[in-house]
What does this fold into?
Amino acid sequence: MPTHGIGRWRHFIPKEPPKKKKDKHQMKPILAETNTAYGSLSVRVSGYDMTLVEHYSQYIHNLCNRLGVKVAESYALPTKTTEVMLMQEQGTKMFVEAVLKTHRRVVQLSSLNATLCPVFMGVLLRNQPEGVQLSVKEHTEADFHARFKGRPELEGLMAQMNQ
It folds into this structure.
């Protein structure tokens, strides 16, 4: 008595077509503010400690989900590196004292209710860790383009091809 194939069920599920490759990141439309809600807002978190910045942006995202605020996107901006130089008292040479890396994260909110905003901001400011800067501003097209690193050699080659 043949028993092969008993319990198989995968052939009942329709096969899904392979996923298409996404094109370049498309900018989502910026929502305008109304009388009762703010439009697209960018909540920026920055600091020198990557784990603090990452956890605080995760906290903001979870808080928005709990309060019913729609999160459009959450992403990281390129890290900025700053070298602190030290000059000797009697010399002209400068030595690298420290290298500071500034990590930045953005949580983009699509519509924040105006009555909920003071409560939301109060909770964010009360739970803000030390060494982490927080800023909230209206989302612009320049903010969208700032999230991508520039590639000057590629842009130069593209300009040569177009000529």
